[in-house]
Amino acid sequence: MTNPYETNLDPNPANYQPLTPLTHLERAALVFPDHVAIIHGNMRLTYRDFYERSRKLASALSAEGIGKGDTVSVMLSNTPAMLEAHHGVPMTGAVLHSLNTRLDAAIIAFQLDHADSKIFIVDREFSGIVSEALKLATVRPLVIDYDDTEFPDDAPFPKGDRIGSRDYEEFLSSGAADFTRDGPADEWESISLNYTSGTTGNPKGVVYHHRGAALMGYANVIASGMGRHPVYLWTLPMFHCNGWCFPWTLAVVAGTHVCLRWVRAKAMYDAIADHGVTHLCGAPIVMSTLLNAPEAEKRDFEQTVSFNTAAAPPPGSVLAGMAEAGFEVVHLYGLTETYGPAVVNEWKAEWDALDKAARTTRKARQGVRYPSLEDLSVRDPETMEAVPSDGETIGEVMFRGNIVMKGYLKNPEATRKAFEGGWFHSGDLGVMHPDGYIQLKDRSKDIIISGGENISSIEVEDALYKHPAIATCAVVAYPDEKWGETPCAVIELKPGATLTEAEVIAHCQGLLARFKCPRKVVFRDVPKTSTGKIQKFALRNEIAGKA
């Protein structure tokens, strides 16, 4: 029998258009043309300016033959050019490839070759390392220099030499402000390329599509509690998962981007106080930078600032310090493969009445699926069966939905493996609580197996962070003849603090089962990535080499 709801009701241009985040900026420029979209030093760009400059960039790129299937790479700091690239590049149908600004020349060259980059926009701050990379790469992209006019005079280092054949502003001036964007004809078309960290071999290229980026715009607004015209401070690198998609998100609510080239305490406090910042994102290290700043660098501000943070849940002392300083911390979790945040710790009002220990327990959970994620599960990776929702049975955290990557560029085997069983396998181990909130226990490679017992490095780190002298810590496996491996704690102390190995072990024994306590303690700076994540792989290799 014919279904009347599927008869003569086909999609057509009037009732179906592919989702794309490019419409967010178009609408903001139409409705709020004079509202300030970007603050960068003394520079102010309205939404009219922002949209016009993005269209000029797209027009200039098109004149160079850039279109669908092409890659435009950028090595830019958190500047207006980076925001313009997020809109102007996909307006041509091309794919934006944002490079981590802390990479070495060999990895930059690998990414340029793997992405087959046609054009490369480079901030002069990074021209030295990029020049080395271009000598190693086989591709020969058109290089465009971005000369930041707001580059501070008191920068710790001078700008690098010009290495391109074109200047960014000159390139923009050659474009047309009335450029009409090219699609996308299909929302599955690729919009951006982000490479994983590559801690075990060459990095993998994660491909995003227009649909996911558009949905993240709406979801970020909801998860972050953004009203109309929020003011967002760029403490998160825009190269990291496309800045968790916030370069596209802010236009949904006509917000203001406050650019920040370097994460420094005084600059952050000045921006928050002077511009009325309402939201920012970053790793826990950004919170520590704010809280540990000299009093002379701190500023008072009237508004409560929402701080989105990912990675491990912040220690209770840090959360308390942030609240006292005027920040409300929102705990998120996700991966490069999920467009950044895909899980949020949705805080419930009734939890405010719990005692401190119970509140801390709730805050330690990663949370529930993002508004734009269809499903979140903890499963046995062998049987693909969901583990019991008992808060104890460990399985692999898996994702399913429209904010999961298309796959890995030119790597079908890795893509197939990541999507086995119809779910994206995160590689993170966790539990599902009875109320549907997940909690990470470890990366699969970070679980310490001692005498046949699984020890969560996160659990041990949580105990360590309860000591007031510890600023940063990481727990990794240490080879042991008897037990196979045992926990080793690498600890970075707060300024002026002192602590001994015996005191650390005694502290842990008061909070953990004895077999979970560190048997070795190393005091040193804890290595971190450019986004503030602790480099456990480096510590594992170092500790294993010294055993």
Automatic annotation (TrEMBL):
Q: Which domain of life is it from?
A: Bacteria
Pinpoint the AMP-dependent synthetase/ligase domain residues: 25-409
Locate the AMP-binding enzyme C-terminal domain: which residues? 459-533
- Fetch the Pfam families from UniProt: AMP-binding (PF00501), AMP-binding_C (PF13193)
Catalytic reactions of this protein: 3-(methylsulfanyl)propanoate + ATP + CoA = 3-(methylsulfanyl)propanoyl-CoA + AMP + diphosphate
Q: Which GO terms describe its biological process?
A: fatty acid metabolic process
Q: Which UniProt keywords apply?
A: Fatty acid metabolism, Ligase, Lipid metabolism
Q: Name one GO molecular function term.
A: ligase activity
Top class in the EC scheme: ligase
Spell out the family assignment given in the record's similarity comment.
Belongs to the ATP-dependent AMP-binding enzyme family.
Output the NCBIfam families linked to this UniProt entry: PRK08162.1
Protein name, entry field: 3-methylmercaptopropionyl-CoA ligase
EC numbers: 6.2.1.44
Which InterPro entries does the annotation name? AMP-bd_C, AMP-bd_C_sf, AMP-dep_synth/lig_dom, ANL_N_sf
